[in-house]
Give the backbone structure.
Amino acid sequence: MAFKPLKIGKYTIEKPIIQGGMGVGISWDRLAGTVSEEGGLGVISAVGTGYYDNKHFTHKLVQGRPYLEENFYSKEGLFAIFENARKICGNKPLAANVLYASNDYGRIVHDACEAGANMIITGAGIPTNMPEFTTDFPDVALIPIVSSARALKLICRKWKRYNRVPDAVIVEGPLSGGHQGFSYEECFKEENQLENIVPPVIEEAKNWGDIPVIAAGGIWDKNDIDKFLDMGCAGVQMATRFIGTYECDAHENFKKVLLNAKEEDIKLFKSPVGLPARGVRTKLQELIEEKAAPKVACISNCVAPCKSGEEARAVGYCIADRLSDAYYGETETGLFFTGANGYRLDKLITVHELMQKLEHGEDD
């Protein structure tokens, strides 16, 4: 059965599949542009745009890294990414993912709107003031990521002062890649698994109007998509499977790390953000345990919860530096985020092939 289109705000997405935003540099122009061109919603990560085009848009480097948040979250880099994505997908809907934990969050949201984002997606915190930064762009759809009905209720209450409700909401379970909305222990509790947190969010969404609910975290194939659509979701968000595409902006070594990963290699790690994060266990984790990881210098000042490197020193690594190393394919010092199903990637395919599989079922 063919998918129904997904309507978010003033925009219609042909297929109800949102590609998860992955930074640093994993979902930029090539991946996001191609996903939108193929009828899904491509999502550009606003994280680390100072690294785009070999740091061409960074005005100050220290030890070869973008200096402070104005360079790490480069406005010019973000504009260039959107411009090049638009060359692929034209006027089809295109989104930006902006972490709420980002230093300079409001400025980055405004930059993304100015760059041409039709939608802003925000997780890594509860974005209670998100509409404040989009008043100049009333057509931009706002999509928070939550892990509970309670979080959605809080957001909707806080947004009353802006006379807005979310245009859609993504509910993310604890099998997703990167940062989780739960503590380490909570990630394993049955009541927090995606199929159990989706129904209360759907019910809460009904209290605020017709807010589409999008399921995320561990969704792999058409069977998973159908399951959540049947539960009442309007669409799904998927990230990890898109790493296994030729168009994914990640370095070939990044893709190889996932293609070679076994199920037992994918773990939850401590993060300077203060939430557990899921990725592939590699040489980096050994170096951290041996206290031999690269020294934390906090050059980019990327996220507020890290407190200018204080939390990074406590957990033993700088997340901005290690994610950017992964983007460059540095297998010794890179941090390679993936969802719990990352080990199931076994070959690279095109985005077109992947979208066909997701809509019509696997053929192998």
